[in-house]
Specification:
The protein has 228 residues and is α/β, with parallel strands linked by helices. The chain is 46% helix and 17% strand. The chain is globular, with a radius of gyration of 17 Å. It starts with 10 loop residues before the first strand and ends in a 7-residue tail after the last helix.
């Protein structure tokens, strides 16, 4: 069977909890390698955006399934950015608010949501030269990926990082609020029945708590054939 590396390059996955630095690291690693960057979390934020717009209760399974079956989700990879579209309308710039993040955590725990988005993500398995980041990339979406990483950091570090991002993006909130949101996200991610957050058995685990992005990227490069 032809591997990703024999096509256009490796398929590399980076999983980990909120605030561990996945997005920043994945973009930096993709840039160093000349690869495309795939942010699969954008799809769950897109679901949250659609649900919020429709005013549907996530606990209403029938309404949720009807909504998801009627919406066209699409992502494209464009110069280090995962562009997200709903029914051909781009909503990339509307997905970073704390409200969308919290709702994304809720919808991501729903099995039928993950099942709906799986084929959209998995279609990239036919390509190489991709750094894909999320929470179940190496365990469920791309179990045959060439190189897998699991990025983690302590709670205080993750809280500080996520709080800075919120302020930078124009969504100020208190650090205690940020911490509670991360703890809630951790609980949802690790306890969900479908594809719970955990390292793949063959993933390289890296603790980024005391490392810069550049240092994390260098450690990752050491595990990628031909780039050490």
């Amino acid at each position: 069977m032809e591997t990703f590396a024999q096509r256009r390059g490796f398929l590399i996955t980076i999983d980990g909890p909120a605030g561990a630095g996945k997005s920043t690291t994945a973009r930096a690693l993709a840039s160093r390698l000349g690869y495309a960057y795939l942010d699969t979390g954008a799809l769950y934020r897109a679901v949250a955006w659609v649900v919020r717009r429709a005013g549907i209760d996530c606990a209403d399974v029938e309404a949720m399934e009807t909504l998801l079956s009627s919406v066209d989700f699409h992502v494209s990879l464009d110069e280090g950015v995962t562009r997200t579209f709903i029914d051909k309308k781009e909503i990339t710039g509307q997905l970073r608010s704390p409200e969308i993040s919290r709702l994304a955590s809720t919808v991501a725990a729903l099995p039928y949501v993950r099942d709906r988005l799986l084929p959209i993500q998995a279609r990239f398995s036919r390509e190489g030269g991709i750094v894909a980041e999320g929470r179940d990339m190496g365990t469920r979406v791309f179990p045959e990926a060439d190189v897998k990483f699991f990025l983690e950091a302590d709670l205080e570090t993750r809280t500080a990082r996520r709080h800075r991002e919120a302020v930078r993006d124009g969504h100020p909130e208190t650090q205690p609020d940020t911490r509670r949101a991360i703890e809630e996200r951790d609980a949802n991610d690790r306890s969900r029945a479908t594809a719970p957050l955990k390292p793949a058995g063959d993933a390289v685990v890296i603790d980024s708590s005391s490392l810069t992005v550049e240092q994390v990227v260098e450690r990752m490069l050491a595990w990628i054939p031909g780039h050490s």
